[in-house]
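Run log // design_07
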């Protein structure tokens, strides 16, 4: 008779426990991804954020071998989407595109806190436009001279308070000393309509909504905000070239997830994004909406966002700019 009657039973229980641990996706590494990924966009279909996301998502499907479902959840300057993703498991199956810079006093999940950056998707220009009328200022220098001589004459539209377009307009004023009244819109399309129709004299917007109207001759472009000219508008000077020394402002689009995403999954996604951004179809699609791909590691992406957001927060504080 065995001196350890529970020995075999004990070994069996240990074997069962180890088997359960090995099969648990929370305690042992599983293949990633092993099912469909949801990629949330906080803006309506057809805009820059949506277009950039879908271009990259199509390539990631092929690289990762799983479907990627783009889920548009527009509202509250993208914060509805961020709040949703911040409540989902940090397992890499719910992602979100974070556009920036965006400043607001409304509490919302932020990269570096509730959200973690995975990869930079794209950067792009905003563009200062006005109606292409015979009496319009011929260039940026003439526009700034007229605005300086007539402080109450000019207002400019943007896609909303605290957006990159709004902040770019404020930076123009801070660096030149001119005064312009900000007119926030709920998106860029209505602002474009009002500039063309003469309801407002200027707008600072992303390239996507203004590009066809610049090409058709309905809008006049005074300059793009980035340090280099846009491939979409190679004939349009940068604001720096046109007369505002050291001017530079970029829109950016970042892939993010809820904080706590395992490093190996973040790395897998970052590598897949880097591969997608080198694809000719993606590069051409970005060019069509005024964006350009930029490959960064997750850390480089997070560091860039931190520096850029601090820069804009300092501008808002120094100049007492209303962002809500």
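design_07 sequence
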């Amino acid at each position: 008779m065995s001196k350890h009657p529970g020995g075999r039973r004990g070994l069996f229980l240990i074997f069962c426990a180890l088997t359960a641990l090995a099969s648990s996706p929370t305690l042992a590494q599983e293949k990633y991804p092993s099912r469909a990924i949801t990629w949330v966009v906080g803006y309506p279909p057809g805009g820059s954020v949506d277009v950039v996301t879908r271009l990259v998502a199509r390539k990631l499907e092929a690289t990762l071998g799983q479907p990627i479902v783009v889920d548009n959840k527009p509202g509250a300057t993208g914060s509805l989407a961020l709040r949703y993703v911040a409540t989902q498991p940090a397992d890499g199956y719910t992602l979100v595109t974070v556009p920036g810079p965006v400043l607001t006093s409304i509490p919302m999940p932020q990269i570096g806190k509730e959200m973690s950056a995975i990869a930079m998707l794209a950067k792009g220009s905003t563009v200062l436009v006005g109606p292409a009328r015979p009496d319009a200022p011929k260039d940026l220098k003439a526009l700034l001279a007229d605005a300086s001589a007539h402080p109450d004459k000019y207002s400019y539209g943007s896609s909303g308070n605290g957006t990159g377009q709004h902040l770019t307009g404020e930076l123009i004023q801070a660096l030149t000393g001119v005064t312009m009244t900000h007119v926030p819109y709920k998106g860029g399309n209505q602002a474009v309509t009002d500039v063309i129709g003469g309801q407002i004299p200027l707008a600072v917007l992303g390239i996507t909504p203004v590009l066809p109207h610049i090409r058709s001759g309905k809008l006049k472009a005074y300059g793009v905000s980035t340090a280099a000219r846009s491939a979409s508008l190679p004939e349009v000077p940068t604001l720096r070239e046109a007369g505002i020394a050291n001017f530079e402002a970029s829109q950016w689009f970042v892939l993010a997830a809820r904080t706590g995403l395992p490093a190996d999954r973040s790395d897998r996604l970052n590598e897949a994004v880097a591969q997608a951004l080198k694809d000719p179809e993606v590069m051409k699609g970005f060019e069509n909406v005024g964006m350009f791909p930029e490959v960064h590691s997750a850390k480089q992406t997070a560091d860039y966002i931190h520096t850029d957001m601090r820069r804009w927060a300092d501008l808002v504080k120094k100049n007492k700019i209303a962002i809500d």
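The longest helix spans residues 298-319.
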